[in-house]
Structure formats: C-alpha cells, structure tokens
Amino acid sequence: MVTTETKSTTQVKREIVRARAFLLAAFLLPLNTYWVGWMEAVTWAGHPTTYSLYFNTVLVLLALYAINELSRKVFGFAFLNRVELLLIYFVLNIGSTFVGHDQSQVLLSIIGHVHYYKGIESRYEELVMPNLPSWLVVVDESSLRELYMGNSSVWLPHNFLAWLKPLAWWWLFWLAMVAMFLGFSVLLIPQWARHEKLTFPLARLTLQITEPSLFRSHLFWLGFFIPTFVNTFNNLHALYPFVPEMHTHRLDLGAFGLSHPWSAIGWTPINFFPFAVGLGFLLPLDLLFSCWFFYWFWKAQRVLVAALGYPAGGIGNPPYQGEQAFGAYLGLATISIWVARHYLWQSLKINAGAMNSQEFVVSPRWAWFLAAIGFFVLVAFSIVAGMQWWVAILFFIGYLFVSITVSRSRAEFGSPAHDLHHTSPGTVMVMLLGTKPFTPKTLTVTTLYYWFNRAQRSHPMPTAMEGLMLLSEKFGQGKPMWLATWLATLLGIPLACYLLLEPYYRLGAATAKVVGMQAKFGIGDMGCGWEAFHIFLLPWLSSHHQPNKGAFVFTVGGFLFSWLLHFLRMRFIGSPFHPLGYAVSGYWSMEMLWFPFFLAWLAKAMVLRYGSQTDYYRVSHFFLGLLIGDFVSGGLWTLYAMFLGRALYHFNE
C-alpha cells in the first residue's frame, strides 16, 4: 500500500497521547454506538460492520481531522495530534465491533427469545427450557413483552434489571474472550509486523487519509466526486421519486433464466461499489485475484454438484461450502502458528533474555497470562452452563483458530470480508460427529454461543490488533493504545447492549418501526433467536442426527487444500492463488464484493504492467477518492436519514 508521510520518524515518535484524547474518545463512544445500532438494528441501513472498514469511524476520523486542520489555520494550534486522532479512531472501531451485526445484536436476540416465544407450537417448553441455563437468558415475560411491543423504556427499573441479570454474566464471558484475543494479539504483532513483514493495510490506510498532501491531488477529488454524485442522485430519488434512479447495485446474473445445472450458481449479484473498488486497488494484487477467482471456484462447485444430481448448497449439503471454508480457516491458523512456533516459544522465556521484551506492547508473560486466563474462564463458564468439558475445550480451540485466521486475513491483505456464516465450531462438530456424543445441555449452550459465531464480520480481535500494531510499531505509543483498548472494551460492551435496548423498548422490536436482528432479520425473518433455535437446536433435540461423512471429507479437504495452496506459493514465487482468497470468498460479503474487486484487480494490473511507480502513486489518489467519497457522502446521507426517521438509499449493499 502506498504511504506518504511528511514527518520524519523521530518527529512522529515525539507525539504523545494526552488525557484529552481519552476523554474525547469516551464522549464519542456512546454517540457512535447509538448511531451504529440505529443504522443496523433499527432502520436496517448502512451496515458499516458487515465489512472490515467501518465507514462511520472513517467519517468521524475525517471530521476530527478537518476540525483540527481548521483550528491550526485559524488559531495557530491543533487540539489533537495525529497519534491522538488515530487512537480515537481505533477506540470507536472497537466500540463498533461490540454493537455490530455479529456481536451484541445477535446476543440480545438469542437471550430475549425463548421466554417470549414459548408455546405449544414452538416446543420450547418441552425441549429447550429444561436444558436452558436460566441465569443466561431473560426470564421476565412482562419486560420482554414491553421490549417487543414498544411504548416503554429500558431505563425503567424492572426492565433495566431484567436484562442486567443475564447480561452481567455475558459481560464477564465477553471480557474473558477479549482478554484471550488481546493476549494473542500482543504475542503475534511483533511476529507478523516485524518478522513476516505483514503490512496491516486497513490500519495503514488511516495514515494516508490523514496526510495533507492527499487532499491537494486533483485525481483524489475526481474520484471523490463520482460516488458523491451517485449517492446524492439516488438519495434524491428516495426522497422525491420523480428524480431518476441510477441502478448501480445487485444486477443478478442468476436471474437470467439459466437452465439446469447452470442455474445452481444461485444469487450472483453485480455491484458497483466505489468504496470497494477504491479499497481493492490498495490491496495486494494476488489476493485481489484470488478473491474473485475463488468466488467463481465456489460457483463451479455448485454447478458440478447439481450436474451430478445432488441438491446444491445449503447447510450440510454438497459441496459443503461452510465445512470446506471452516477447514480452510483451521488450516490457515495452523500455518500461522507453525510459522511463528519458535517465536512464540521464545516469548515464554522472555525473562531468560532470549528476546527483547521491548518488541511487545506489554510483557509477553502478561500477554500469555491474559490469553490463558481468558481461555480458562471461557471453558469454565461453559462447563458451569452445562457444556461437556471436552466439547468446551474443542469449541474454544476451534474458535481461537478461526479468530487467528480472521486477524491474519486483515493483517496480510486487509480482507474487507471474513464472514463464515452459520459455521461455528459447535455446528461443525455436530455435523461431523452427529448428535449422539452430545448431551442436550451441551447442544443448548452451543446454540447460545451462536451470538458470536453466526458470522465473523464485526470481530474484536483484528480490530484491536490493528490499533495496537499501528500505534506501537509506527509511533511508539503502544501503552496508551493498550489502555484505550480496555477503555473501549469496558465502556463499549455495556453501551452496545443498552443502547440497542433503548430503541427496542421505545419503538417495539417486533413492530414495523424496527427492522433488525431482534425479531425480523435472519432465516425465516423472525430474528436471529428464532434462527438459532429453529434451524439448529430444535432439529438436534427432536431427532437423532448421524455423522455427515461428506461434511467430514470436505472439512478435511478444505484444511489440506489451504496447506496445498500455501505450499504452492512457497514453491512457485508469484503464484496468484492465495489460500486466504479461498477461505474468505464463499460467503455473502464476497457475493457483494467480487465484481468491485475484479474491477480493482483489472485496473491495478494494468497500472503495474504499463505504468511506473510514480504513475501508481498518482492513480492511487483517484481510488482513495472513490473510497473516501463513498464513505463521506454515504455516511452523511445515512446520518440525515437517521434524523429524518426513514431509510434512504443504501450505498453499500
């Protein structure tokens, strides 16, 4: 990725983080949390946390940067230095993950579902409730009724306490999970940033968009104008239908009357997302190619399966897309750990002088302790809730491996997508082993854990790692970022939950005023709680499931194929097939991004083939303009829609 820094390294490192940055971050955190929750869980618009780069925090960063520069010109001083701007940005990023699609939104839907929707037809009282740990769900039916019907307030004592009792336990669980993530992040950052030279593109992007020279480029403003024009035009159409609409999204190739077996490709949208084209141009060329190539590789598998007479796609059906991808995630995690094995072993002997402890944000012994105690608390919590001990250990080993791969995908090429929908360690274990080895309580607790395994989009580990890496490696300010990360965690987790509950109680989560995961979105359009219990748990409890041999073969196949692609890259320099592209390209997010990535790959390949390094540097300003223009104009229109009380044009979906 191109970077342009005018300050010398020594000058940058003299910038320190003052108390004002922490205070401003704490002030902005609830505002940002409410904004994300309103967009994603109430109006179902914007969806910043479905991608790795959150437009809401980029917009805040640019706003603070503009205010700072205006203060510098008018008053002769800037209120915040660059390091403080970036610290605030990463605090808001971490806060956004907690309130995002695949964290608290799903948690609230699951723990607030059973006791409201129980009844003879649901079979919850017969099958689920005898195995459900009551201390982990909301049991106050009157409070739940007010949540779903509205015209109430979460701040009323009985509503506040009804949720506080189970949420307090989940917050403890959440803190243990974050502790495990941060421990491993501290241990892996020096290995990945210094020894393997991973670039952390999304973190370094913040350096480019806070560089004054960028905004003096004519190509930047040309790129900025294109998405601004499109977004403004389409939002005017939403407000005033007589204004023509510019159709730039979701031209479905699968809807063109394809015959069998070609119709098995299913939904295949062509989207023009300027932000995705702009971001893609800044990513490594081989990974761009791998993303769109393996997207069609997955489609080809579906066509082949249909031609052989099998039902193509779906959970537990050929070509076992989720199981293949899960195996690939495990394979990539083992590759990362294997490459870092000597480094990680030496970090255990830090006090013996084997390594320089200054490489780490905090003491490596402290990092190992955090990782170990976090893992222990997660396992112990699960056992107390009713999960079998061996399942709890395997579950969190699998989840840790998935988290390492998600973090690696962001560190190595800034992957804008890593969702892995409906493929958790628990569901894969049941798929591979059948239901016989698992007790009903184990299956029930596994379903409760669906809230952080429905998908892996708004994942805390890579988000925190990016902030720790940039401020420690680039600016020597790892300690302030470490404190800021815990500030974002301790404030962000409870804020995420209660600032989602606020509009739910006021408007009614099951009314037409709220369109989100609590009671509307998901398989069956009845909320993620219904999705977790009806798609997974009730079938597990009501009938005996045999081991799925095909799923087992394809899970192992995905694991081995990721190793094969890694070996080919090591053996043949310049191989365009990257295992990360194979792992991340088979899900919803890549459905949305494959065509913008294809355009970005084509443009970047031509510039690198026929242009010079100077040409690439200049052209990159145009693509940064596409990215920032889409985020700024789309984000501002989303804010306007929030105050207007209605949904407008969705610029990124």
Structure write-up:
66% of the residues lie in helices and 1% in strands. The protein has a two-stranded antiparallel sheet. The chain has 26 helices and 2 strands. It starts with 8 loop residues before the first helix and ends in a 9-residue tail after the last helix. The radius of gyration is 24 Å and the shape is globular. The chain is mostly helical and 653 residues long.
Class from helix and strand fractions = mainly alpha
Number of helices: 26
Element-by-element helix/strand order: HHHHHHHHHHHEEHHHHHHHHHHHHHHH
Strands in their spatial order, largest beta sheet: 1-2
Compute the separation of the termini in Å. 26 Å
Shape: globular
For the largest beta-sheet, the strand count, sense and barrel status come to:
2 strands, antiparallel
What does the secondary structure layout of this molecule look like, with pairings?
Blueprint lengths: L8 H5 L5 H25 L11 H21 L6 H18 L4 H8 L2 H4 L6 H5 L12 H9 L7 H39 L5 H9 L8 H22 L11 E2 L16 E2 L3 H8 L3 H23 L13 H19 L1 H7 L16 H22 L3 H25 L11 H9 L6 H9 L11 H15 L3 H30 L20 H15 L6 H23 L7 H6 L3 H23 L2 H32 L9
Antiparallel strand pairs: 1-2
Helix pairs in contact: 2-4, 2-21, 3-4, 3-26, 4-20, 4-21, 5-22, 8-21, 9-16, 9-20, 9-21, 11-26, 12-25, 12-26, 13-25, 14-17, 14-23, 16-17, 17-20, 19-22, 20-21
